[in-house]
């Protein structure tokens, strides 16, 4: 799918929100500035979140509760050693009740469970190519 601009990415996130269920894990791959956080912002808005959406680059995780649904947005860009994630108790976030988004899952190593969806974003100037795969089926 080709995404023309930021608005398009937000719209794609809102579409994605319709497919999410409690317990799902979504990995987001793509370079800095690809639009991973923008896509999550669209998802959160689609789920009914009204407030701001911060990039969790410095805190590693931003928690949300949207209409009783816990959603955790991780950004592991700054993680150098997966042990940091062990200390934050990352495993506890991945459970049957939560929906988890993970930017830079490559930095999570073996500590991350396999995702339900793998989303890859490629940059072509101002356009983005969005590739979504059902990881567990592939
Ligand atoms: P990431 O989380 O992947 O590092 P962000 O979502 O934080 O990326 O930032 C993406 C940036 O790219 C934003 O500043 C956004 O306005 C810009 N942008 C330009 N074109 C697009 C597009 N087609 N889709 C998404 N973002 C775009
Ligand atoms: Mg980001």
From TrEMBL:
<keyword id="KW-0460">Magnesium</keyword>
<comment type="similarity">
    <text>Belongs to the TsaE family.</text>
</comment>
<dbReference type="GO" id="GO:0005737">
    <property type="term" value="C:cytoplasm"/>
</dbReference>
<keyword id="KW-0479">Metal-binding</keyword>
<dbReference type="Pfam" id="PF02367">
    <property type="entry name" value="TsaE"/>
</dbReference>
<keyword id="KW-0547">Nucleotide-binding</keyword>
<keyword id="KW-0963">Cytoplasm</keyword>
<dbReference type="InterPro" id="IPR027417">
    <property type="entry name" value="P-loop_NTPase"/>
</dbReference>
<keyword id="KW-0819">tRNA processing</keyword>
<dbReference type="GO" id="GO:0005524">
    <property type="term" value="F:ATP binding"/>
</dbReference>
<protein>
    <recommendedName>
        <fullName>tRNA threonylcarbamoyladenosine biosynthesis protein TsaE</fullName>
    </recommendedName>
</protein>
<dbReference type="InterPro" id="IPR003442">
    <property type="entry name" value="T6A_TsaE"/>
</dbReference>
<keyword id="KW-0067">ATP-binding</keyword>
<dbReference type="GO" id="GO:0002949">
    <property type="term" value="P:tRNA threonylcarbamoyladenosine modification"/>
</dbReference>
<dbReference type="GO" id="GO:0046872">
    <property type="term" value="F:metal ion binding"/>
</dbReference>
